[in-house]
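Consider the tokenized backbone below.
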């Protein structure tokens, strides 16, 4: 399930990057691309509002999915120890020769 959520988050990041790159930082945005023909093309006059709403919605989706994904992480389970002695892979300590 975590893999599916991660894929959806990545797709939402791509959509968010699209919304951010299409917007003009000086306020013109997509509506400035069409020049004075904004009244002739349906919806272009308010494209800035649509881009802003899309940006905020996509950011909310990413934040929500990130918070939800934490619920699917499992905490590490304690290893049950048996009554057998633990074997060490470390080399044995050698005593220094007495002089």
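A designed sequence for it:
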């Amino acid at each position: 399930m975590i893999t599916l959520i991660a894929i959806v988050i990545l797709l939402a990041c791509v959509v968010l990057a699209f919304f951010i790159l299409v917007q003009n930082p000086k306020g013109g945005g997509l509506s400035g691309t069409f020049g004075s023909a904004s009244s002739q093309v349906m919806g272009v006059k308010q494209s800035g509002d649509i881009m802003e709403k899309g940006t905020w919605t996509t950011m909310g989706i990413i934040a929500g999915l990130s918070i939800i994904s934490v619920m699917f992480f499992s905490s590490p389970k304690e290893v049950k120890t048996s009554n057998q002695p633990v074997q060490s892979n470390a080399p044995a300590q050698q005593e220094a020769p007495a002089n």
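Residues 1-24+44-73 form one domain.
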